[in-house]
Specification:
Blueprint lengths: L20 H21 L2 H12 L5 E5 L2 H15 L4 E3 L2 H4 L12 E6 L5 H12 L3 E6 L12 E4 L15 H20 L4 H6 L5 H7 L2 H4 L8 E3 L8 H6 L4 E5 L5 E6 H11 L8 H4 L13 H9 L7 E5 L5 E6 H6 L3
Parallel strand pairs: 1-2, 1-3, 3-4, 4-5, 6-7
Antiparallel strand pairs: 7-8, 9-10
């Protein structure tokens, strides 16, 4: 049986195109320079007025755009929605075929366009104006056809596109995105949005879980806790140590106050140091009496950070109340399983 031919992408390696490292580095430097041009020449009074209008809007803030600018407009709208701000994307084509019916005189329409001369937006603008909406043009071409239709025009300074032909919209869309997202965070600050309010808009994702879940929501409780007394022999507690799923023993007194912890790592070190003497040693003699702990009302993400902090990471944290009473244990595996 003959061997299969080599994949085509492995053949004629010498003919494959290569990118010079210095060329790539220079492109990044050029893009940085063009972005700096935007920051240095942005009209801050226009930007402030734009932000103030969005902040005081009594209706819905609609974003629209064509092509790449349309994608940016959709993204910025979605960011505002995630902050609890009424917003939506209005397709300029669909708007002219019925979707414009959603507009009211209380709404704001933000038209993103590099040139300000997109045919679809030029057709949409007077129709949106007739509905009584407040129109804002966000463009990089200072002389454009949208100017006459918009109540406010914001200029996004563009030195040139990174594209060697100055055509592909790569720098212009980058500054649109930076501008829109920065405005979104300004609105977030002005509305005094709390962490809890932000989290309530992201309940299913990692963002929401990290801001909503507390230690008491993810910790193991009695009777799952691998507890023992300090006078217990280490060898008598091996089953509890290895079968509890936590990799540790929580050493407590008669009142359930936490005394310390004994881990499978402590077991290995004790066995190496004492040999057969381990049969006579108690958990209390070898346990860590100063373990890291956490309270039940701490954020779950704080527990994860505490586990990963220096001098060395740990896999669990005993959960204690203000009286040092053991009420639970939170494990790294449990946090990861919960979506954190």
């Amino acid at each position: 049986m003959g061997s299969l031919p080599a994949p085509s992408y492995l053949m004629n390696v010498e003919k494959q195109q290569k990118l010079d490292e210095s060329t790539l580095l220079n492109l990044f430097k050029s893009q940085q320079r063009y972005l700096n041009y935007f920051f240095q020449h942005l009209n801050h009074s226009q930007t402030l007025k734009f932000t103030q209008i969005l902040l005081n809007s009594k209706g819905t803030i609609f974003f629209t755009g064509v092509g790449k600018s349309g994608f940016v407009a959709q993204k910025i709208s979605q960011t505002l929605v995630s902050l609890g701000i009424r917003s939506g994307f209005l397709s300029p084509v669909d708007a002219l075929h019925g979707d414009i019916g959603i507009l009211t005189q209380n709404d704001v329409v933000v038209l993103f366009s590099k040139s300000g001369n997109s045919e679809e937006l030029i057709k949409l603008a007077p129709c949106a104006k007739a509905k009584g909406a407040y129109l804002i043009g966000v463009t990089s071409n200072e002389a454009n056809n949208l100017l006459g239709f918009c109540d406010l025009n914001v200029h996004l300074p563009l030195e040139r596109e990174l594209c060697p032909f100055d055509l592909a919209p790569v720098t212009s869309t980058a500054i649109q995105m930076v501008f829109g997202d920065t405005i979104a965070i300004a609105l977030m600050a002005a509305r005094n949005l709390s962490r809890e309010q932000y989290a309530s808009n992201h309940p299913a994702g990692k963002i929401g879980k990290s801001l909503i879940f507390k230690v008491k929501d993810v910790m193991k409780k009695q009777p799952e806790l691998p507890v023992c007394k300090e006078g217990d022999l280490i060898m008598d507690q091996l089953v509890e140590l290895t079968s509890g799923g936590c990799g540790c023993l929580l050493v407590i007194d008669d009142n359930y106050h936490l005394i310390g912890t004994f881990t499978d790592g402590d077991l290995r070190r004790t066995l190496k140091a004492s040999g057969e003497g381990i049969f006579k040693l108690t958990v209390g003699e070898m346990c860590n009496r100063h373990p890291r702990t956490i309270g039940p009302d701490a954020m779950a993400v704080e527990a994860m950070q505490k586990m990963e902090s220096p001098p060395s990471p740990v896999q669990f944290l005993p959960v204690i109340n203000e009286e040092n009473t053991l009420i639970g244990i939170v494990t790294l595996h449990g946090l990861v399983s919960s979506g954190l």
